[in-house]
Design a protein that fits this description.
The protein has about 150 residues and is mainly beta. It starts with a helix and ends with a strand. Helices cover about 10% and strands about 35% of the residues.
């Protein structure tokens, strides 16, 4: 019976970038609110870019053509210490940040000159790894940049 449950949690999604892929339904991340300009997509899954790469794809499970490149901001800025509003933490059922159940991701922008790629440190995505709920939070910290260069 357990094997049947395991198989039932695997779903297929169609993506433009990866073709049809199988994912564990338990790994789907659901946004409490849609990302700005994307009201039709609330569910995403993280897909590793390459082995040993700090980059990941944040693929929509609803829109096959919607995928973002994301990265852990601490890879780019070791001293990254954002102040998260209590309301944002509460909405995600997180006791604080950092927290062992929390994952922070920054959206990456890659221009034609890859050496100029940046990460948005002002509006990171905060995920509760236990509940798989997510929210893009807007930081009041003026010390971070919307376009923080990733490569030195």
């Amino acid at each position: 019976m357990k094997r049947v449950k395991e198989l039932a949690s695997i779903i297929k999604i169609k993506t433009d970038r990866f073709g049809e892929i199988e994912i564990d339904a338990g790994k789907i991340i659901r946004f409490l609110e849609s990302l700005p300009g994307l009201p039709e997509s609330l569910s995403f899954v993280l897909i590793p870019h390459k082995e040993d790469s700090p980059f990941m794809w944040f693929q929509s499970t609803e829109l096959s053509n919607l995928a973002f490149i994301v990265i852990d901001p601490y890879v780019c800025v070791g001293e990254y210490n954002p102040s998260i509003e209590a309301e944002d933490l509460k909405s995600l059922s997180l006791g604080g940040y950092p927290d062992e159940d929390a994952l922070m991701l920054g959206m990456v922008s890659i221009p034609q000159d890859v050496s100029e790629m940046t990460v948005n440190l002002v509006a990171p995505i905060l995920i509760n790894l236990k509940t798989k709920l997510a929210k893009q939070v807007i930081l009041d910290d003026c010390k971070y940049s919307i376009r923080q260069k990733i490569l030195p």
